[in-house]
Structure formats: structure tokens, C-alpha cells
Amino acid sequence: MTILRNVYQSMYKIPENINAHLINTCTARLNNELKRNIWGFVAIAFNRVDMDRLMKVGPNRLCAEWILKNGGGIRTTANPDFLFKDYNNLPPENVKFFIKVADATGASIMKIGLQHFNGCKHIDTVIFHNCQHLEEDGLNDILYLTESLKVLQVSACGNIKDEGLMVIGQLKNLEMLKIFFMPSVKDLENVKNQLQKMLPNCIMDIKK
Asked: Which Gene3D superfamilies does its entry note (predicted)?
């Protein structure tokens, strides 16, 4: 903060005793912008697919690492009752496992991160709850799970709008869909009607 204050003073020749409030306001804004930029860089780094790591450990472990690093959890086919939340509790790298449930509750996942689903052929349940960094079209790559996905929850994801939910209609094997508390969705009833037409055999619980 002191460095930024000195920069403002040297650039604009502002007497400190006269414009202290102005300087503090401007430096605070710069500081917040810097924090946002740093967070954005970190978030992208934590969501981008590491191709070298993918080749080494395979899609299921890489996907699990992605979800856990971003604050979510996973269940495996071998241990479906246990929710892995700690990155360090995953099985050793020489132990192969398959993800059954991807629980992104409160996770800082982004659209590019969903590319981690590619190659994960046993995921039958996905939960996107309170994913505040998931963009408006953030669900598009859920289609990597078209063959295996049976249960999907999308809730409290503030950036996703009506159009962003329509991709769900392409999940032909979906058996249960739960959508609620989506503040950016303007016409949830229309979304529900459209999805019911696209997925007539899917049980849906869609509400505000």
C-alpha cells in the first residue's frame, strides 16, 4: 500500500495532507484489482488440463486431483460410501481407481476444468452446487459424460443462465435431474418444459 501511495504522489504531485483519502481509495482499488488478477491466474492454473500429468496417471486420477484441488470431493466405484475430500487421502499412484461421483459442492471449478471428464467412463453422478466460478456456458463439457451420467444436480451456480442449462438435454442417459436456486435463470419453467421434452424419461426436480 505504501509503495502504491508513493507512486500516486510522484505521478500526480498530490500533497499527502490534502488528498490522503483519495490516495487511499485509489490504492485500495489497485490492490483489489491485483488480487482479482492473481486469483484469476491461479484459478485457471488449477482448472487447466495438465497433459503430461494425464499421460502419467490417466484420466480418473487427474480428474480426482482437479476436483479435490478446487475444493470438491469424489467417490469411487470401489468405495462409493466414502467421500474423498483430502488430496493426500487418494490411493497411491500405482493403485488404479474409477470415479463414480463427482461432487463439486462449493468448488472453484471453471468451464475449462470440465475437460477433465474426458475419459472418465464410470461417473454416474455429478453435483454442481454453489460453483460461483462456473461461467454462463460452463456446463458444455459435461457432454463428455453422456454415456455414463445418470444423476445431475445444478444448484446455486450464479453465473449460469437459461441457455446454459439447455445442454443438459443432450445427456440422453440421464435418469434424475435436480435444479434449484439459480438466480440468473429468468424463466425456469420454460427451461423445465424444454428439458422435459428433450429427456422424457428423466425424473426432474426443478424449482426456484
From this structure: Ribonuclease Inhibitor (3.80.10.10)
